[in-house]
Amino acid sequence: MSIAHLLEDFTAPANGVAVHLLDEEALEEQRLAAFEKGYGAGWEDAIQAQEQSGAQLGTELSATLSDLSFTYQEALTRMTLSLEPMFQSLIQVVLPETVERGFATRLTEQLCEMAQDQIGQPMQLTVPAGTTEQVEAVLPQDFSPRPRITEDPSLQPGQARLQVGTACSEVDCAALLSSIAAAFDAYLFEAKEALSNE
Questions:
Q1: Considering the entire predicted model, what is its pTM?
Q2: 139 Cβ partners below 8 Å, 6+ apart?
């Protein structure tokens, strides 16, 4: 026995509206059209979401790189300023002592270079007061002709004049140290200015 009489019949026209029944082929075409429409809408949503995500990622990356650059510069500046006492002692104590210890050796090297161009010519060294023994101690024993060393009280430590024949030269380690100190002071000034502008 069938129960069809118990169920509502949807194929019958309701309120005067004609019901249009689709055959299997038309129904399949509607399904495909609905699928393609939904797939296309989903694809467009995915592309739009991808573009928004890419734009947001680019903005965040740019902001992060900017922050990193600022943080790096700030850290570098602060590190430089924290090393100021060490650099000051390097410039005021270590470098002058190193120059002082190497002064006589540097004079000897320069004198030898000049003597190669003026073989056999008389040599004259003018050094600051009190440095004659130090310079004589580093001169090679077989140096010929032996240079004449005189002291000039007007010369500062680290300064000297050399003459071989007609060639003259001056050594001024004090000016070198002074230019190093000035360069370092300028660098520290810039670092302090950069830090105060934050």
A1: 0.42
A2: 108, 146, 147
Q: How many domains does the chain have?
A: 2
Distances (CA, A) of 98 to 9, 70, 101, 131: 110, 38, 5, 15
- Euclidean distance between the first and the last CA atom of the chain, given in angstroms as a whole number: 92
Residue 17 pLDDT level (bands cut at 50, 70, 90):
low
Output the DSSP codes for 93-117: IIHHHHHHHHHHHHHHHHHHHHHHH
The reply to whether 190 falls in a domain is: no
Contact partners, residue 115, CB within 8 Å, separation at least 6 = 121, 123, 164
Q: What's 120's domain CATH number?
A: 3.30.2320
Residue 90 and residue 175 share a domain: yes
Q: Write the pLDDT tens digit of every residue in 147-198.
A: 888 888 888 877 888 888 777 888 887 777 788 888 888 887 887 777 776 6
Chain centroid offset of residue 14 CA? 82
Amino acid at 2: S
Q: Does residue 197 fall inside a structural domain?
A: no
Determine, yes or no, domain membership for 3. Answer: no
- Sort 56 into a burial class: Cβ within 10 Å, 0-12 / 13-18 / 19+: exposed
| Residues of the domain holding 125 | 85-180
Which stretches within 8-161 are classed as H helix? 24-82, 84-89, 95-117, 132-138
